[in-house]
From TrEMBL:
Record keywords, A-Z: Carboxypeptidase, Hydrolase, Protease, Signal
Species of provenance: Qipengyuania oceanensis
GO MF assignments: carboxypeptidase activity
Name of the protein this chain belongs to: Carboxypeptidase regulatory-like domain-containing protein
Signal peptide residues on this chain, from the entry's feature table: 1-27
Record keyword Signal present: yes
Domain of life (superkingdom): Bacteria
Length: 900
C-alpha cells in the first residue's frame, strides 16, 4: 500500500512539473522552506542496481531540481554521520573511515577529508523535517550519483564502487536463500476470544435527534423535530437490531427489526451448516435472469460465505445510513457513485459493474458532524470458484418493501406482495461450478414463477457464464456472459436470446435478442493514469422495438482530489406513434482536500428531452477548526424548483456526544435553522454501568481489554498480579489509539462487525524494556453493539541463544528458527548468523521448544525438531543452549548412515 501511495504521489508531481504547475511541496526557495508542511514531500524508494532499499527517502522538487532529506539518506544508507540540528552541523564518514565529512551550516561550508572547506551555496534547504540536500551536491559529496525518477517514485544510486550498504544487501541476499519467499498471516494461529450468544444482552443504542424551525411559501412557518434510534444487542441467543424513526412532527414513522446469526465457519442449525440466518427485515438474493435483490419483512437462510456475490458481473451493496449522512462508493479507489439521505435509513448501490480480477469496493459514509466511516468488501471475479464438491444454498421469503412493523401513514406506492426464492450452487472442479434456482414474485400485474440454471467455467484469463431461465406458463431466455483480461485491459461481453414472451426484473420485457460489451482500461495523460470504462448494448424486442444503451465513465484521482464523470445514453424506438424515447444524462462527482478544506460535490445534467439542462448541483465544504470542531458550508441548486439553497453549519465533538447547529436560506424565500445531537449509549463492560460515547456503539463492535503483568507465566490473571496503565491497544494493522487507565483497562470501539481482528499491545508503549507481551494478541470476531472481554498478559522477558551446527557439525548461517510455546504457537523467529549464532530477544517467561522452520528444514534435509524443552524464568532469564546440531530427516541418506 505504501508503494502504491508513493507511486501515486510521484505521478502527481510529474504531472505538475509537465504542466508547469507547482504547489508548496513541489517548488520552494530558501525563504519559503519554513512554509512546507507534512504533505509536501514525495516518498522516493532508493534503488541500487537490482535491489530496492526498504527505508524510503523524503524528497522535494525545488527550483533547481530535486533535494533529498539528509536524515533519511543517513538512515537508508546506514551512514555513520551525526546530524545535530541545534548546532547546525553534520559530522561523520562516508562509506570508509578515512572519508570524513563535516557540514557546517553556520559557516555555510562543507569539508570532505582534507580537501579544504567549500561553500555550500544553495545546496541545502530547510524543511520542517530537517535538511534537504540538492541531489547534485549530494552526488558530489558522496561519490554516488543520485538520479531521482519521480514517475516511478524512486531515486537510483549509480556507482562503480562496492559500497558498504551494497555489500550488506549481498550478505542478506545470500542469507535469504533459505528463507521462504512469502510468510502468511494466519489468524487461526492466535487464541480467539470466546463470545457465547446469550439469552439477553443489553443493547447499545445510537441516537440522532434534530429540532428546528423552517419556513417556505408552500407550507408556511413550522417547527420540526425528528428522532432516529438504532439499537443492537442479543436476545434468545441471537443478535438483533432495531431502528425506529419519526417524521418531522416526532411521530413514529418507521420501525425495522431483525434477529439474526452469522457464523463464517458454517456451524448454524446443525446439519444445515448455515453461515447466516435472519428473521424480520431481511434482504433476498437476486437471480441471474429472474428476480432482483429485494428488502422487506420475512426470513432468510444461507450457507454461502458472508461476502458471496449473487450475480456474475454485477453486485449490489446495501447498508445502514443514519439520518443526515451521505454515502460515496469507490471501486478499486475510483469514485463511481454517491447517495444522500433519502429518509429510509439505508444506502443502496445497485447493479455495480464488476471486472475480471480484483474488485475492491469501499463505501465511505460522511456524517453531519464531520464523522467518516468506511465499509470495505472484496468481490473477485474469476479468481475463486466454488471448491470442488462444495455445495452452497440459499432460501428466502419476504414481503416486498415492507417493514416488520409498518408505522408509515403514507406507504410507498407498490403492490408490496410476497416473494420467495432459493438456489443451490455446487463446485465441479477448480474451474467449473453449476447452479439452479427458483423464484416467485409479483411483476407486471400478476404473480410469476421461474426456474433458472447456470454454468460457470474459467478458461484461461476468461470467466464464462452460461445461464437460462424459464417462466412457468410464459417464455424463456438464454444468455452467455464472459469476463476476461488481456494485459491491463478488462473486457466483458454478453449475448442473450429470448424465446416467447419472457418477462422478468432482470431482462427487458419481450426480448428477442440482445448483445452487449464492456471494456475497462486506462491511458496516460502526462504522468497521470486515467481510467476509462465503456459499456454498451443493443436489444431488439418482439414487437419490433429497439433499445440502445451506452455508458462512459472516467475519473481523475490525485493526491488531493478525486473527480468522476459518467455519461449515460438510452434510446428506445417502438412501432406506433409516440413510441420513440431518448435520454442523455451526465453526472459529475468530486472529492478534494485543498487549503485545509474537504470538498465534496455532485451535479447532474439532462442533455436531451423535455427537461434538458441543469438538473441539480451540490457542493459541500468542511473545515476542521480544532481537533474537536468543524465548520461546514453547502450550496445546492435545484433546477426544477429554480432555487439555490445556502447553508452553514458548526459541529462540536465531545467525548460522549456530538453537537451540530446549522442555518439555511434559499433564493425562493425558504429559511431554516436546526440543532442536532448525535450520541450512543450502552452497557459499560468495565464498570457494569451505562456509558455514553461519540462512537457508533450499535453499528460496530467493541473490545474490553485488561492488560496485566503475568508473573507466573500461566497466561491467566491471578490475585496480586499488577495491572498496567498507559499501554496502547492495537486492533488489526492499526493502532486503536486507546490507552489503558490506571486499572489497566481500556475499551476499543469502532471494530467492523463479523470481520476477525487481532487485538494486541503496542510494545513501544511498555515503560519497562524487559517486559514483553506474552502473546501477540487475541482474535476477536466483533458483533454489533456487543463488547468482547479479553485479557492480554505481559510478562518479564529474557533471551534464548545458541550456535546452530549443520549435519556435518559445522556452523551454518541463514537458517530460519522458530520458538514454540506450550500451546504450539510460534512466539518468535530468528535467523542464524554466518557463524551459526542465533538469538531470540524479548522472550516472555515460560516454557518453549526450538525448531527449524519447515522450508529451511526441507531444504537442508533435516528434522524440524531441535533442542528439547527450554525454560526462561526469573532464575534463568537467558537460556544458553550452546551448540545445537541439526538432525537428518527420517528416511534421508544421512539418517540411514547414522542408523548403521
Amino acid at each position: 500500500m505504501a508503494w502504491k501511495l508513493s507511486r501515486t504521489l510521484g505521478a502527481v508531481a510529474a504531472f505538475a512539473a509537465a504542466f508547469g504547475v507547482s504547489g508548496p511541496g513541489l517548488a520552494q526557495t530558501q525563504t519559503e522552506a519554513n512554509q512546507l508542511g507534512e504533505d509536501d514531500f514525495l516518498l522516493l524508494q532508493p534503488v541500487v542496481g537490482g535491489y530496492k532499499l526498504t527505508a524510503d527517502v523524503r524528497g522535494y522538487q525545488t527550483d533547481q531540481g530535486i533535494c533529498l532529506d539528509l536524515a533519511d539518506i543517513i538512515q537508508s544508507l546506514d551512514l555513520p554521520v551525526r546530524l545535530d540540528k541545534k548546532s547546525r552541523r553534520a559530522t561523520g564518514w562516508l562509506f570508509a573511515e578515512d572519508q570524513t565529512i563535516t557540514i557546517d551550516r553556520s559557516s555555510n561550508t562543507v569539508q570532505i577529508v582534507n580537501r579544504g572547506a567549500k561553500p555550500i551555496g544553495d545546496a541545502i534547504y530547510d524543511t520542517p523535517e530537517g535538511w534537504c540536500v540538492d541531489t547534485k551536491a549530494l552526488s558530489a559529496w558522496t561519490g554516488v550519483e543520485f538520479k531521482p525518477d519521480l514517475y516511478n517514485s524512486v531515486v537510483k544510486l549509480v556507482t562503480d564502487r562496492e559500497m558498504p550498504f551494497m555489500q550488506a544487501i549481498e550478505r542478506r541476499s545470500r542469507a535469504a536463500r533459505l528463507r521462504p519467499k512469502t510468510q502468511s498471516f494466519d489468524l487461526a494461529q492466535y487464541p480467539h476470544a470466546e463470545m457465547e450468544y446469550k439469552l439477553w444482552r443489553t443493547p447499545s443504542v445510537d441516537v440522532v435527534a434534530q429540532a428546528g424551525y423552517e419556513s417556505d411559501r408552500t407550507r408556511g412557518n413550522r417547527r420540526v423535530a425528528k428522532l432516529e434510534a438504532y439499537a443492537a444487542g442479543e436476545i434468545g441467543k441471537a443478535s438483533y437490531f432495531a431502528r425506529v424513526a419519526t417524521d418531522n412532527d416526532l411521530k413514529p414513522d418507521s420501525l425495522r427489526l431483525r434477529a439474526y446469526r452469522h457464523d463464517a465457519d458454517g456451524k448454524l442449525l446443525g446439519p444445515l451448516k448455515a453461515t447466516q440466518v435472519a428473521v424480520g427485515d431481511v434482504q433476498s438474493l437476486s437471480g441471474q435472469l429472474t428476480g432482483e435483490s429485494a428488502v422487506g419483512r420475512g426470513a432468510f437462510i444461507s450457507n454461502q460465505p458472508l461476502a458471496h456475490r449473487a450475480r456474475f458481473a454485477e453486485t449490489s451493496l446495501r447498508g445502514v445510513l443514519p439520518a443526515g449522512w451521505d454515502a460515496e462508493l469507490y471501486r478499486n479507489g475510483q469514485l463511481i457513485a454517491f447517495q444522500g439521505d433519502n429518509g429510509d435509513g439505508r444506502y443502496e448501490f445497485l447493479d455495480i459493474d464488476l471486472f475480471y480480477g480484483r474488485n475492491e469496493l469501499e463505501v465511505v459514509l460522511y456524517g453531519p458532524q464531520g464523522q467518516i466511516r468506511r465499509e470495505t468488501s472484496s468481490q473477485p471475479v474469476g479468481l475463486e470458484n466454488i471448491e470442488p464438491g462444495k455445495t452452497y444454498y440459499w432460501a428466502g421469503i419476504l414481503q416486498d418493501d415492507r417493514d416488520l412493523i409498518d408505522l408509515r401513514r403514507n406507504r410507498i406506492a407498490g403492490p408490496h406482495e410476497w416473494r420467495w426464492g432459493g438456489g443451490v450452487e455446487r463446485g465441479i472442479d477448480k474451474r467449473t461450478s453449476i447452479g439452479v434456482g427458483l423464484q416467485s414474485f409479483w411483476y407486471n400485474g400478476r404473480r410469476r414463477n421461474y426456474a433458472e440454471t447456470t454454468l460457470w467455467r474459467t478458461v484461461g484469463p476468461v470467466m464464462m457464464e452460461f445461464s437460462g431461465a424459464h417462466e412457468f406458463g410464459g417464455g424463456s431466455i438464454a444468455q452467455v456472459n464472459a469476463l476476461g483480461q488481456v494485459g491491463k485491459i478488462n473486457f466483458g461481453a454478453h449475448v442473450a436470446k429470448g424465446i416467447g414472451n419472457f418477462q422478468s426484473e432482470q431482462a427487458l420485457d419481450g426480448l428477442r435478442h440482445e448483445i452487449g460489451a464492456q471494456i475497462d482500461m486506462s491511458f496516460k495523460l502526462g504522468s497521470l493514469s486515467i481510467p476509462l470504462q465503456l459499456s454498451g448494448r443493443r436489444a431488439e424486442l418482439r414487437d419490433g422495438g429497439k433499445v440502445d444503451n451506452l455508458s462512459v465513465r472516467t475519473a481523475l484521482t490525485t493526491r488531493v482530489m478525486a473527480i468522476a464523470a459518467e455519461f449515460d445514453h438510452e434510446s428506445r424506438s417502438v412501432p406506433g406513434p409516440g413510441g420513440d424515447f431518448e435520454r442523455n444524462k451526465l453526472r459529475l462527482l468530486a472529492n478534494s482536500r485543498i487549503f485545509g478544506l474537504r470538498l465534496r460535490g455532485n451535479a447532474a445534467f439532462d442533455l436531451s428531452g423535455p427537461d434538458k439542462g441543469f438538473e441539480y448541483a451540490r457542493l459541500t465544504a468542511e473545515k476542521r477548526l480544532t481537533e474537536r470542531s468543524d465548520l461546514a458550508a453547502e450550496v445546492e441548486y435545484l433546477a426544477r424548483e429554480d432555487a439555490t439553497r445556502f447553508s452553514l453549519g458548526y459541529s462540536r465533538y465531545f467525548d460522549r456526544f456530538a453537537l451540530r447547529t446549522d442555518a439555511s436560506v434559499a433564493t425562493n424565500g425558504a429559511v431554516g435553522a436546526h440543532v442536532s445531537v448525535a450520541f450512543s449509549f450502552g452497557p459499560d463492560p468495565l464498570s457494569g454501568g451505562v456509558r455514553f460515547s461519540g462512537s457508533k456503539l450499535a453499528r460496530s463492535g467493541q473490545a474490553a481489554v485488561t492488560v496485566f503483568r503475568d508473573d507466573n507465566g500461566d497466561g491467566v490473571r491471578s490475585a496480586g498480579e499488577e495491572l498496567l496503565p498507559e499501554v496502547q491497544i492495537e486492533a488489526g494493522m492499526r493502532g486503536a489509539g486507546t490507552l489503558t487507565d490506571d486499572k489497566g483497562q481500556a475499551i476499543v470501539d469502532d471494530l467492523r462487525p463479523f470481520i476477525p481482528v487481532l487485538v494486541g499491545i503496542d510494545e513501544s508503549t511498555l515503560e519497562d524494556p524487559f517486559l514483553a507481551p506474552a502473546i501477540k494478541g487475541v482474535v476477536v470476531v466483533p458483533r454489533p453493539g456487543i463488547a468482547a472481554r479479553i485479557e492480554l498478559p505481559v510478562a518479564p522477558s529474557g533471551e534464548v541463544e545458541g550456535v546452530l551446527l549443520n549435519l556435518a557439525g559445522l556452523e551454518i548461517g541463514g537458517v530460519e528458527l522458530e520458538l514454540i510455546d506450550r500451546a504450539g504457537r510460534t512466539v518468535g523467529t530468528a535467523y542464524s548468523e554466518f557463524d551459526g549464532f542465533f538469538l531470540f530477544q524479548r522472550v516472555p517467561y515460560g516454557e518453549y521448544r526450538l525448531r527449524v522452520a519447515r522450508d529451511s528444514a526441507r531444504t537442508l534435509g533435516a528434522e524440524q525438531s531441535l533442542a528439547g524443552a527450554l525454560v526462561v524464568n526469573r532464575d534463568s532469564d537467558v537460556a544458553r543452549l550452546g551448540a545445537v546440531k541439526l538432525a537428518p530427516a527420517r528416511g534421508s541418506i544421512a539418517a540411514a548412515g547414522d542408523d548403521d
